[in-house]
Amino acid sequence: MALVNDIAVWILLGLGSFFYLVGAIGLVRMPDLFTRMHAASVSETLGAGLLLLAMMLAAGWSLNAAKLAVILGILFFTGPVATHALAQAALTAGLKPQLAEDRTRKNGARAAKRGGGK
Amino acid sequence: MRLVSLWIVLTCFWLLMSGHYTGMLITLGVVSAAGTVLLAQRMGIADSEGHPIHLLARAVIYWPWLVLEIAKSAWRVTWIVLDPALPISPTLLRVRSSQKTTGGRATYANSITLTPGTISVQLDGDDIIVHALEKAGADSLEDGDMDRRVTWFEGAR
Question: For residue A35, which residues of chain B lie inside 8 Å, CB to CB?
């Protein structure tokens, strides 16, 4: 039983680290701030979630596991708020996202506006 | 009723964080939880928005669905990041949020942000401006499935 638990912990640790790595690679590869935030949200959600899940399994049925669960909950409530604040601050500061298509235009045209438009 | 529930939750939180179960520390926890409830009451934040117990039953159904959505879209973004061609098509779009309460609308905007591949950038009246990493993600958001689920989640209040 302990062996099964250990194997599960290692698998979850591996997967969580993998998604953190993916987030980091995406952070480097993406072209602008907004797309970079999409990459970072992979590590923020799946990466952090799986790592905390692994730690909860390693801690066993104890107080520490419950505390880790609280951390996970707080992370999932505060993470999007911080992300939204950053995105809105960037937009308000006048940073224009590089877009393949802008569907917020009033003319209702769904036609793609290519070439890094506004 | 709501205050008693808040008091119980805060006391449980104290017990969870302290981990020392001697008579004096538990008493201190119970008393400070009561003090916090009193302060929250005076500040007027112990209302249905600050302590939404009525959402608990629906949350049990909504959250697992949201976690599944997060896992699915994180997997998609992972493939995009690892694809040598980096097939992104960033899209800015406007989605209507049909929630009535501010808490419901915040839940919808946060759910959008929490799902990798879409970020809610700005609230504009009843609309949410969303930045999506690819057109497919923008399309699925425009279908309004998540909007309907959050509206169901906030309930008819």
Answer: 88, 90, 133
